[in-house]
Structures are given as structure tokens and as C-alpha cells.
Amino acid sequence: MAEIPYTESVDDVRSETPPPARRRDTGTHTLATGISILATLIGLIFLAWLVLFVTKGRFLKHTFERIASSHTGRAVKVAGDFNLYLDPFATKFLAEGLTISNPAWASKPNLFQAKLIDTRIDTFSFLFGDQSKVNWINLVDGAADLEWDAKHQNNTWTFGKSGGKPFQMPLIQRAEIDGTTARYRDPSMQLSVDVAFQAIHAQDNKVGKAIRFNGDGTMRGRPFRLWGSQSSPNQLIAGGANKFDLHAQGALFHIDVAGNLPGATMIEGADLTVGARGPNIRYLFDLIGVAVPDTRTYRLTSHMVKQGQEYRFTRMTGFYGASDIAGRFTARVPANSDERMLLTADLKSRHVDIIDVGPFIGYDPAALATKGATAAATTQHKGDGVPRILPDAPLRSDSIKTFDAKVNYTIATITQPFVPVSNIVLGVDLNRSLLKLSPLNFDVAGGHLSSDISINARVPAVVTEYDIRLSPTPIGKLLYKSGVADAPASGVMTARVKMRGVGDSLRKSLASSSGRIAIILPKGTFWTQYIQLSEFDLGVFLQKLLQDKLKKPVEVNCGLIGFTVRDGIASADPILIDTDKNVMTAKGGFSFKDESLSLAFRADGKKFSLFSGQSPVGIGGYFAKPAIQIITPQLLARGGAGLALGIVASPLAAIIAFVDPGDAKSAACGPVLAGAKASAQRTTKGAPREDVGSGKSKDVKAEKQHKKFLGIF
To answer: How confident is the model at residue 390 (pLDDT cuts 50, 70, 90)?
Structure first.
């Protein structure tokens, strides 16, 4: 039987063929390695957390003391039990007998100490945030000392050598505080406060523990006390509101704050109601080291919201004295000591009493309230027994160095004015001790007054620059209380005051001032009952007086009442008024130094007059008590001469002493309307005028206690 040859099957061939090599998946291997490492790290972290959780981190006590002391530059010690661990996303911190020392210059040994502090701190904000967030804190018998040094450069709560930074509270959501005190001292502000916190234990779970606090302090030597309360943690857990109220009262101010807070120390975004009242708002702002003008008794209410570094007071309403006020106010607190506080405000009043303006320029508000405006003004500077008007309250130049301000204030009307005043617009810009009152504008008697005043307190001797401008204003409305009738007339006046003075009060500034004052009267008419006093035309004056027809229209061609001011002495330069019948001139002036007046007015007729006194009318005395001398020694001398002629010759000869030939030279109105000085004044024929004085300070004898009018009386 023949052999059948062996043939390999396909399966046999496949079984003997070696399998291809497997390719390694690199991505899968890397991912697996990463997961393993991450799992290991998580495991280690969990293990570390577990160790900390089980041991409560008590073994870290000395490590904490060493690291905290090194980081703060202060001695940090824990006398009793210590816990530090994650629970689970918040850091649990507990310390019994914790103390943190103060710098050597401080008056107390410790910045902080507590019998017990038990807290939960948000871990993320603690490690990465600018401000730590505390979820809950229990503080027993704690004491905090917050103190600035005498130069206001360093404080107890700023660690390291970065200087003194403003105090920033941690954001605390809930708190239980019992038997804790806080102390604050700022020598530069003359402010000290001591506050004690006490928990009130109540029955049932509606209240739990409410935190009450009270304390006292002094501000610039004046004592005050404060008190208030805050809702309990139990009430917050139940979904209740964190109600907060604070009251501060001193002899010179009272503050009330009420509202709801998001957390125990969280006022960011909270809408609080704030009320303040007192005899003078200056003492309220002294609490934060800000200088504001004095006021009479005030009462204000507003809503307050904190946004970042800003405290915004909105919907403000209230009054000061007999004047209303409303608007908004913002205080931006500096983030560090290199910056300055910025105050911004938009305020408005519908009606302001003229007396309430007095404290703004330096009058004593207490004297205004008790004595009235006239007595308060004229009883200043009692030393020499002379009544004074210009206030002498000094600018608080040291106080305005600590803040900047931008304020807009509008007033609709001024009540009880000497002249009609309305629509006042005041802009206040304080920038590093340079105070600008610009604009300071208002409508007055049918005209408009614009002014810009700059007070430079950057230099040791405060420098004030005045620039005041009056647009064409009807004379009848402006001077109606001085005898000028508010009757149909075309007479107007314009004015410009431009001066510069040195001194830290209005009186000192004007007493040293130099510059120019010019009042211009364009062509027009006005009515008056007193113009004949300056003309002193006996025939016409007596006739009108006996017939009760004293009022008469006066035709003014042009007029200039100008003064050159040198070192507080204002001399006429010139006073020249050209009317249809007379040319009126004056010599002399006044003094800002002692507020004395020494002026002599003369009116020379353009037409012949049989009975004319041709005698100057003197104005003397002081700003607060002027004296008008109509029957002058010169007139009496002329009357004596007429009497002698009447005795020696005849009664007709006696009239010769009172004859006015009517030779007055009309004024060229060009230099008058340009406000030119006396040296530039001319007659209508171009001749220099010799009847308007020299405009020199030597012409004025007002600063002398006993004086004659220009040496002619």
C-alpha cells in the first residue's frame, strides 16, 4: 500500500507561527501614572488631614508660635490648649491663653490676648485672599489694643516695617463674644475709645445670645460714650436678620446707626440708616480728623452704604440753624498711610438764613445763636473797645493737610438778606492744602456776582487771592435799604475786586492785602432821598425837605468809586461821579487793619447856586459804627464869615459866603468807565484832574486812633 504524503493544515501552520509583538499605549500609561501619583498625593493629604483631625493639630503648637512670631515680628504665645486643622474646608483654629505682643513704643504690652479664641476661617480666603473671611468665632475674655504712635506713622496692628496701615477688620459672618474689650488710641486726633462686649443670655431659642457693647472715650479732650447691640448667632442660623444698632453721644454730638448686616463685621453693601445731631457739625467731623466749617445747631439723617474704600451717604436731609440741606456725601478712606482721605459731596438748600452763613466765614456760632448777628459781629476784639465786623477765626491749616475734598453746594434763596440774593453756586476744591472756592457765584438784586477765591495753606504764611466780579446791577434794587428808591430807573453799577493777602483768618488776610477795588457807574438815572446831603445845596435841600418832595431823579453821566489797597490801607483812587448838575469827588479811604473810615465827599455844582454849602460831607467811625458828619467845621467857619459880613456890611453881603459860582469841570467818561486810577483821569477838555487825590496811602489817616478828616477838619 503506497504511503500518502503528509500535508500541513492551515490550522497547524497558524499554531506554529509566533504571535506579533504587542505595541505599548504611551498615553494610557502616562494617564495611569498621573492617576497613581494624584491618588498617592490625595492619600497623603488625607492621611495628613486625618492625623491633624485626630490629633487636632496640637503638636503644631510650638511650630505655630515660631512661625507666627517670625512673620509678625512680635512674640506670639499660646499658654493652654491649641488646635489647628481643616474641618473640612474651613481651617479650625483654637487657642487658650493666646497673646500677641505690641511693639516697644506702645502703652500696652499686648496687641491681643484672650482666654479662649475658637474660630472657623475660610481656607481659600486665608491663603489667597486680601481679607480673611471668618465663618464663625467664639471669643472669651479677649482684649485688643489698637494704637497709633504720636507721629501717626506706625500703629500696633501693622506688622513689619511697612508703616501704619488703616485698620481692616476680618469679615466675620457669625460671632459669640463674651467679656471682651477693645481699646483705640490716636494721639494725633486726640481720640481714645474703650469698648466692652458682653453677651446677654436669654431663655428659649428665639434669641440665644445677643451681643451688647458699651464704652466711653474722649475726642479732643471732650468725653463721650457709646453703646449698641447685635443679633445672636442662633438667630442668624434660623434665617433671621443680623440687626445692628450703634449710638454715640457726647456733649457736642449724638450719632445713631441702625440696619441689617450680612455678617457680624460685614458692612459691605449693607444699607444703614445714620442720624447725627448737635450744636456744631465741626465736632462731628473732628472724630475722623476732617476740618469743616462751623455751623449752628444741626440735625441730619441719611442712608449709608460701604462700597470698597468708600462710605456713601445718600438721601441726606436735615437742617443747620434755620436752614435746610439735602444731598449726598462720600468719604473715600485711604488704603494706606501714603494716601489721603477724599471727601466728595453734592449738596443743596432751598432756603438759607443769612445768620447761618456767619460761621462759614469765621463768626462764632454760639454767639450768633445767643446774641444775634449784629452783636456777634460787633463784640469781637474787645481788647481795644472798638467794634469790629471782620471775623478773626483762624483757618485750621493743620487739619486740612490730612484730606482732600470736592464739594458742590447750591442755595436757592437767602432769607433776611440786606440785598436780594439767590441762586448761589459754590464749588469747593481742596487739594493738598490748596483750597479753592471756585465758583462762588450768585444772583444779586437783578445782577450776578462771580468770584474765585484761592487759599494757599501749603506755605507757612497762608496766602489768599480774591477775584470778585459784579455784572451790571440795578442800583435801585441793590441799595434800596440805603435810601435809593426801587423806582423805574436805568442806573446800574459794575464792580471788580482783585486783591491778595497773607494771614490765616479773613481779618488778617484783608489787613495785609494789596490790590484794587473798582465800582463803575455807567450813564443812567436813579432815585434817591439822600443825594442832597452830599451836594449840600442849602437852598434846594431845605425847599425839598419842607415840601416833603425830597426824592428826585439823579442823572449820572459816569462814575467811578475806586480804591488802591496797599498793606491793608485802601485809598480813594479815585472817587469821581459826574452827574447832570454836579461833579462829586472824595478823598481819603479806609483801613482793613482797624476797620476805620476816613472819607470826605464834596459835590461841586456845574451851575450857579445862591445857597450852596460847598462843604465836604465826612464819613468816619468804623465799619461796624460809621459816622456821617454833615455840619462840618468848614461849613461853620463859612457861616461865621457870612455872619461877620452881615454885621460889618449888610445882610446881603452875608450871602456871599454861600455863593457857588458853578465852575465844576465835567469828567471825561472814558477813563472813568475803564476804571483807571486817579492819575489817568481827565476833564472833558483833556486836562488832568486835580480834585481826585493822589491815590496814595498817605492820604488816609484812618489807622490813627484820633484823626481829622484828611487834615482839613
So the answer is: confident
Does residue 547 form part of some domain? yes
Domain that holds residue 672: 514-713
Q: How many domains does the chain have?
A: 2
Find the range with the poorest average confidence among 113-122, 173-182, 273-282, 464-473.
Answer: 173-182
Q: Which of 217, 242, 267 is the last residue of a domain?
A: 242
Pick the last residue of a domain from 242, 263, 282.
242
Of residues 337 and 546, which shows the higher confidence score?
Answer: 337
The string of DSSP codes covering 164-226 is PPPP---EEEEEEEESEEEEEEEGGGTEEEEEEEEEEE-SSTTTSEEEEEEEEEEETTEEEEE
pTM for this entry: 0.74
- The three-state secondary structure class of 234 is helix
Cα 258-263-266 angle, rounded to 5 deg: 75
Q: Which three cell numbers stand for residue 146?
A: 489698637
- Cα–Cα nearest to 91, from 54, 43, 56: 56
Domain annotation covers residue 383: no
d(CA 53, CA 60): 12
The torsion of the CA quartet 217, 221, 224, 225, rounded to 10 degrees, works out to 20
Amino acid residing at 693? G
Phi-psi region of 592 (alpha: psi -120 to 50; beta: other; left: phi over 0): alpha
Residue 331 in domain: no
DSSP 110-121: EEEEEEEEEEEE
Q: What is the pLDDT of residues 116-168, one digit of tens each?
A: 999 988 876 655 555 667 888 888 999 999 998 888 788 898 887 766 776 77
- Of the candidates 357, 552, 323, which has an alpha carbon nearest to the alpha carbon of residue 442? 357
Alpha carbon dihedral 565, 571, 573, 574, in 10-degree steps, equals 140
Cα–Cα distance measured from residue 256 to residue 241, given in angstroms and rounded to the nearest whole number: 19
For every residue of 598-663, DSSP letters joined together read EEEEEEEESS-BSS----PEEEEEETTEEEEE-S-HHHHHHHHHHHHHHHHT-HHHHGGGG-B---
Grid cell 438721601 — which residue?
A: 315
